[in-house]
Amino acid sequence: MMNADWNFSGEIVEKFDNHILKSVPMYKEGHDLVCRLSDFFLSNDSVCYEIGCSTGSLTLQLAEHNRKKNIKFIGVEIEQDMVDFANKKVLEYNEIDIICDNILSMNLDKADMIVSYYTIQFIKPRERQLIFDKIYESLNWGGAFVLFEKVRGPDARFQDIFTALYNDYKLEQGFSKEDIFDKTRSLKGVLEPFSTQGNLDLLQRAGFKDVVSIMKYVCFEGFLAIK
Ligand SMILES: C[S@@+](CC[C@H](N)C(=O)[O-])C[C@H]1O[C@@H](n2cnc3c(N)ncnc32)[C@H](O)[C@@H]1O
């Protein structure tokens, strides 16, 4: 990994599931929570999107959780290498489509649930509001947008505490000091978290009025927004 060059293609793909499991606190718990939330929003003939599905883990888990219902699950992923890997995992699931596309430029069908699990933070700030607007427009009334993001602290003091705690977390997960330093350098200009309030503002400007926080561990937060 070099300066400011993090990406989601090539050799990271095979290692991705293990890497993100170790990197994101409560990664599995968040997936479980999204599945439990789906019980409230998905029913027969629903459409459910995951934006930035990477290797398809969450889309697959959602499909398994809802096996008794007739639901279409669509994972959207911009990197072809990820899509190829995900497609191997979901081969036996007719209810899952993994699409290689940019969420910014594609059309979404009407959906009852749209999930973004640590994806928006990798999308250029100038594109984010357009994507939130599109998500709001694509949801049926009463539908849910489930958003998980790395978040910045509300001021420099909190941000310093968040960074220190997260560095400790990564050391405990087995990353070396060099791994942590190199990854931070490689993510410059690639991973750009907003604060909790910044994300709430994006949701509100898109039209969401009903929003709650559903999970928070230091600088990792989940929101449920209902249209
Ligand atoms: C941190 S990963 C998401 C992890 C995944 N949701 C999970 O639960 O394991 C972010 C993913 O978003 C994808 N991505 C980034 N920008 C995108 C865009 N504009 N459209 C679709 N996917 C995008 C990246 O290629 C990457 O695979």
TrEMBL record:
MF annotations from Gene Ontology: methyltransferase activity
> What are the residue boundaries of the Methyltransferase domain, all occurrences included?
50-143
What's in the keyword line of the UniProt record? Methyltransferase, S-adenosyl-L-methionine, Transferase
Entry's InterPro entries?
CmoA (IPR005271), Methyltransf_25 (IPR041698), SAM-dependent_MTases_sf (IPR029063)
Q: Which GO terms describe its biological process?
A: methylation
Can you name this protein?
Answer: Methyltransferase domain-containing protein
Q: Which organism is it from?
A: Flavobacterium humidisoli
Upper lineage is:
Bacteria, Pseudomonadati, Bacteroidota, Flavobacteriia, Flavobacteriales
